Amino acid sequence: MLKLSKVSKVYDGKVTYRALTDIDLEIEKGEFVAIMGPSGSGKTTLLNMISTNDFPTTGEIAINGTNPHKLNKNALAKFRRNELGFIFQDFNLLHTLTVEENIVLPLTLEGTSVKEMKQKSHTIAKSLGIESIMKKRTYEISGGQAQRVAIARAMIHEPKLLLADEPTGNLDSKAAKDVMNMLVTINEKEQTSLLMVTHDPQAASYSDRVVFIRDGKLHSEIHRGESRQAFFQKIIDMLSLMGGEGHDFSSIRV
Predict the structure, then answer these.
(1) Under 8 Å CB-to-CB from 212, ≥6 apart: which residues?
(2) Does the domain formed by 2-244 have CATH 3.40.50.300?
(3) Fewer CB within 10 A of the terminal residue: the chain, N end or C end?
């Protein structure tokens, strides 16, 4: 589904900065992978290249067999709309629009009929428990509701790969738990591949596998077994082993 081969990123400037070095990573269809590492380790750079917001200096990225970085501007825009879904820490919702209008935004760009948009938005809203707030503006809803709206918008066009950047970063523990359970349901039900960057060991423990990055290189990875609690503890142990500043990882919630 997603394959990175020897991907490196170097930023030129007064001082050349190497953000990533020779990253090899594969994610299977329907797999849920979390990326963790200290601040400045290269997690966001990696996500930006996979999301096509940035490009690798060397190496190749293939999503569903296509290298998006080789597409022209129009083809790339279409590829992003059809193949990728995005969930952000700060929700990235448009405050001038209602919840429903935010959700159907990807479909309006595709020229989908109003009838189909309404049908799809209400189906997904029902599955995420946000039917009652569809007519509200985004500043009238809670953070947990806003992240559900963002998930609905990301999933409305049924992307093959969902990219999440700190999806629980601005949520309290209950809302964070709800959002992670929703992402797991989407991952399992729709077989959507999911890649999530997070500082939160609790959020990471919902994934199938955690990949750790340090100083721009792959450090290690651990796989989930039967017990999420045991997996959570393994993540904590690995983070302790890697070191990093105390504030690099969010407070531990069990």
Answers:
(1) 35, 36, 37, 218, 219, 220, 221, 222, 238, 239, 242
(2) yes
(3) C
In single-letter form, the type of residue at position 119 comes to Q
Is 216:44 a contact under the CB 8 Å cutoff?
no
CA-closest candidate to residue 187, choices 140, 215, 224, 214:
224
For 213, half-sphere exposure in the C-beta direction (CA atoms, 13 angstrom radius) is 26
Query: Which structure tokens are listed for 215?
Result: 């100083």
Q: What digits encode the pLDDT tens for the residues 163-207?
A: 999 998 888 888 899 889 989 998 998 899 999 999 999 999 999
Pairing of strands 84-87, 161-165: parallel
Phi, psi of 214 (to 5 degrees): -140, 130
- pLDDT for 219-228, tens place per residue? 999 999 889 9
Q: Count CB neighbours of 172 within 10 A.
A: 12
